[in-house]
């Protein structure tokens, strides 16, 4: 039987997101064809790239945050523009920042272990998540309202979590130079879209006490 007390703490922190700053609502659709790699290849610098997450109980209570590590990644650039790319996320690297767990009877390690078990990401079975770019286009001014400062592109790609793949689109700040590419973004996803549900139904307190919106933050640096 699932422990409701732990779930109200654990399930609040379901994915990678940034602490602070604006985040835009992510457009979600069916899986789409991955963009063909063309141009020069830029390899993601794993040491300087990061994925952060932040989430809440409903009502904005008990925020939890932490990090995930990229396992590999590559971006393609042609004529000064990112044309394609893919990233592999190491789900076993999921960390909970101890500063986000302030209750005396809670431990960051307990939350971390719970998020890794079959109730959530089941990292022993699904050790990797991945994101594969399907398109990169100029950002429409109307879409920049809640985007990260300096956002100039809309990035779309197939995000795979556990055994589910959906296409997401979000504003990003993309900077391309001769030797380096930087991609930064902050956006929000609905965990339930990927079937990540802890409660047995919508009426289950383990589910309705937990916000489905998860803030995500990425900072990727890639070098030629």
Automatic annotation (TrEMBL):
Source taxon at top rank: Bacteria
Sorted UniProt keywords: Signal
Signal peptide range in chain numbering: 1-17
SUPFAM superfamilies tied to this protein: YceI-like
Keyword field contains rRNA-binding: no
Pfam families in alphabetical order: YceI
Domain Lipid/polyisoprenoid-binding YceI-like positions: 41-223
Coiled-coil positions: none
Name this protein carries in UniProt: YceI family protein
Provenance organism: Sphingobacterium suaedae
């Amino acid at each position: 039987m699932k422990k409701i007390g732990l779930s109200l703490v654990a399930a609040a922190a379901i994915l990678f997101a940034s602490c602070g700053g604006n985040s835009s609502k992510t457009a979600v659709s069916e899986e789409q064809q991955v963009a063909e790699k063309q141009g020069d290849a830029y390899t993601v610098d794993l040491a300087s790239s990061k994925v952060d997450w932040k989430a809440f109980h409903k009502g904005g209570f008990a925020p939890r945050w932490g990090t995930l590590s990229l396992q590999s990644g590559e971006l393609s650039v042609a004529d000064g523009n990112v044309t394609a790319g893919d990233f592999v996320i190491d789900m076993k690297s999921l960390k909970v920042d101890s500063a986000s767990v302030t209750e005396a009877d809670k431990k960051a390690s307990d939350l971390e272990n719970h998020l890794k078990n079959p109730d959530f990401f089941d990292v022993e079975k699904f050790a990797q998540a991945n994101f594969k770019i399907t398109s990169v286009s100029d950002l429409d001014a109307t879409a920049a309202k809640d985007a990260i400062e300096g956002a100039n592109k809309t990035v779309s790609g197939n995000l795979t979590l556990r055994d589910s793949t959906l296409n997401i689109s979000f504003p990003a700040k993309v900077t391309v130079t001769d030797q380096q590419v930087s991609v930064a973004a902050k956006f929000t996803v609905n965990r339930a879209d990927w079937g990540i549900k802890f409660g047995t139904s919508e009426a289950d307190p383990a589910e309705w006490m937990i916000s489905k919106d998860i803030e995500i933050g990425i900072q990727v640096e890639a070098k030629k």
